[in-house]
Inverse folding.
């Protein structure tokens, strides 16, 4: 330090702690029991919620980029690819729960009562961005009007795929206006005309390479999400077998119905026949 410099003022906070807001963050890991495995369950839940925050941010940003006139498709694809890294890390987070036995889980399961991941509004928002719009998703939040209202607004906003439909129409593909301007509150079920559009994109990649990249990035996003759901189901089978869930569902059997879902259905259907 130069002789004439004054020493920095003494403070309780170092710069790293300040930037990462550790003062707030590290007060939040408070298990409700003394069960040794509860901290891992709580921390993994919090970590996953943080990744949900990140995915919401990236996917909303990709969607908004795609919706702008003269969309920078490359930028949206880069954003989706960055989010793939977050999805991979989110998936790997299940590893920290891989040894949780039913006996260990039972030691703290009563402590959270009817709390359940089904109430995760960030997860629901993510599903909305992926195009899932099941009315039951909102019904879970009827007792909590603040959450219900926020989710209802998100359920009325376009999904990533809605943005892609608009983009494809803007680029001159035969996307019917009724699809490009559809009401986002209803679930898009897939449409043969869009399957034909994606086939045209994939068949002429020298001309439509950016759109083919977008199709691949969206497919990879969907596939990673399905893998998260599959790992969740395996964790449920491992840690609680086929007992009913804390939210009152049948548990693993209820979750099993959702793990085969094909988000962005046209991108899966176009694979039935493939392309040259
Ligand atoms: C071993 C650990 C876990 C078990 C045994 C478990 C169990 C369950 C069960 C049985 C359900 C069905 C709903 C119910 O009746 O409660 C459920 C739903 C759900 N869980 Fe978990 N869970 C575990 C960990 C996690 C973690 C770490 C997360 C991440 C935040 C999570 C997020 C969710 C979500 C989002 C749902 C709703 C899924 C949907 O609506 O399709 N779960 N969980
Ligand atoms: N549905 C789980 C519990 C559960 O998922 C949960 C409960 C409280 C806090 C976090 C949870 N898990 C994932 O979010 C169960 O039936 O035990």
């Amino acid at each position: 330090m130069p002789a004439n410099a004054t020493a920095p003022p003494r403070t309780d906070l170092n710069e790293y702690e300040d930037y990462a807001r550790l003062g707030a963050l590290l007060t939040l890991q408070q298990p409700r029991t003394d069960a040794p495995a509860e901290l891992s369950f709580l921390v993994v839940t919090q970590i996953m919620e943080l990744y949900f925050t990140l995915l919401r941010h990236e996917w909303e940003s990709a969607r908004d980029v795609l919706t702008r006139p003269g969309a920078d498709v490359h930028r949206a694809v880069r954003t989706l690819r960055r989010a793939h890294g977050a999805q991979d890390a989110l998936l790997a987070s299940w590893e920290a729960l891989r040894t949780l036995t039913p006996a260990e889980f039972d030691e703290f399961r009563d402590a959270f009562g009817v709390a359940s991941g089904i109430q995760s509004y960030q997860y629901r928002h993510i599903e909305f961005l992926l195009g899932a719009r099941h009315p039951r998703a909102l019904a879970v939040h009827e007792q909590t009007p603040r959450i219900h209202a926020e989710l209802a607004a998100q359920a009325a906003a376009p999904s990533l795929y809605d943005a892609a439909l608009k983009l494809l129409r803007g680029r001159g593909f035969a996307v019917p206006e009724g699809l490009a301007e559809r009401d986002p509150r209803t679930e898009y079920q897939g449409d043969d005309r869009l399957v034909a559009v994606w086939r045209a994109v994939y068949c002429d990649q020298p001309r439509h390479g950016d759109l083919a990249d977008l199709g691949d990035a969206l497919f990879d996003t969907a596939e990673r999400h399905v893998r998260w759901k599959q790992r969740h189901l395996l964790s449920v089978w491992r840690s609680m077998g086929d007992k009913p869930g804390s939210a009152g569902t049948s548990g693993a059997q209820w979750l099993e119905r959702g793990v085969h879902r094909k988000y962005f259905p046209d991108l899966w259907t176009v694979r039935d026949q493939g392309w040259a």
Observations:
- Residues 205-240 form the longest helix (36 residues).
- The mean pLDDT is 96.
- The domain at 36-273 is CATH 1.20.58.480 (Methane Monooxygenase Hydroxylase; Chain G, domain 1).
